[in-house]
Automatic annotation (TrEMBL):
Keyword field: ATP-binding, Carbohydrate metabolism, Kinase, Nucleotide-binding, Transferase, Xylose metabolism
Catalytic residues, chain numbering: D235 (proton acceptor)
Carbohydrate kinase FGGY N-terminal domain segment(s): 1-242
A GO biological-process term: xylulose catabolic process
Enzyme Commission identifier(s): 2.7.1.17
Residues marked Important for activity (site): D6
Purpose: Catalyzes the phosphorylation of D-xylulose to D-xylulose 5-phosphate.
Enzyme class name: transferase
Protein name: Xylulose kinase
Species: Cognatishimia activa
Amino acid sequence: MYLGLDLGTSGLRALLTDPAGRVIDSAEAGYDNPHPHAGWSEQDPADWIAACESAIGALKSRNAAAVADIKGIGLSGQMHGATLLDSAGQVLRPCILWNDTRSSAEAAALDATPKMRDITGNIVFPGFTAPKLLWVAKHEPEVFARTAKILLPKDYLRFWLTGELVADQSDAAGTSWLDTGARAWSGDALKAGGLTEDHMPSLVEGSEVSGMLRSSLKEAWGIRAPVVVAGGAADNAAAACGAGCFAEGQGFVSLGTSGVLLAAKDSYAPAPETAVHTFCHAVPARWYQMGVILAATDSLNWLARNLGQTPSDLARALPDQITGPNRAMFLPYLSGERTPHNNAALRGSFVGLDIASDPQALTAAVMEGVAYALRDNLEALKATGTELSSVLALGGGARSRFWLETIATLFDMPLRLPADGEFGAAMGAVRLAMAAAEEASLEEIMTQPDIAETIDPRAELSEAYEAGYQRYAALAPALIADAERAGL
């Protein structure tokens, strides 16, 4: 049996499968995401461990025999988090998460450092790990002085599982300390942040063995044989493995908390000036590019919270078929934006509201605004030379036909909906565990899911939505100027 552990922003998911990848069982456990100050986002790593113990305990209670036969464990996790350990391996402060924007000034300074973009292949975004350490050095110097190791969130979970201090290249690529082309830590990038390679975990490919499950956990969980723990992957790289997107031209659009448009690449071809991320894939000699918006379903969650309704109720109130863009328009910059603006100070806005605007009109505007922002990502990917002819549609937001038709029409590209089954980050973690434990080829393991339906663009509406997109794109500069005037 194989176990995939996906350490998300709001909870941990454990997925148990047989050798063919058929799901035996799954379990989830949540945890808090405190925001102690404006722009801050933190978590206690102890909560991740408690969630893992809870999820595996639930699996064991229902499927003890299957858990006893676990042969490999794969890990997936939220990117960019800074988990700081002292020389004894103790956590020094809460982990600073990917959606924390406190280090925007440090990110700008680091991004301006000569050769940083050349080394990492990316802009230094405020959410990345390296600027967080500069912030800690400035504001919490006693913590910085005691920091012996810096781990990404899933790699702290690995440390608990195996006792090994290891990261994989796909996750390490989001730190701004990795030479992304060479797939190795960069001494120059680390030096720019006042660090050395001694502060870093060792590196493995996501499909390689990173360690063995500790004997005490094997006994506690009733597992009989030795268990390998794979290198694993950053959440989006793991999702790409779960969906079989690891070759040139394969990709997906994900409507989760954040929004992602990802394209797998056979070669390393960064274009940081576009604000497109270029990261190592979870498998050897592969990379991927992605555009990221920070608030996709989070925008709908925000609206639902303020209207006193549930996101699903708001989504269900919209028709399945689109009829054309709304006059009201929403710019989904609730937490700043990554691609293409790279601006932590940007904030969201409604434009064109009418006295007759009701919850349905606001919901449509929010969904369209997210779709417009994803179109920005597509244009940024195109500017790098990346071409996609169709993409898989993943994430909770993909349950909305209205949302999918809007995106397909704005992309002028079919969206393929996978058939029922597992193909997300947890399944990607399972597949990486299989790759580490078995002799099968990646092509045999990383297959694409069966397609249940294809959502085609509405050609008769393409001109109207193109005009809507041009209107949307013209509004962002005004919001950027407003943020600058506000001194944000």
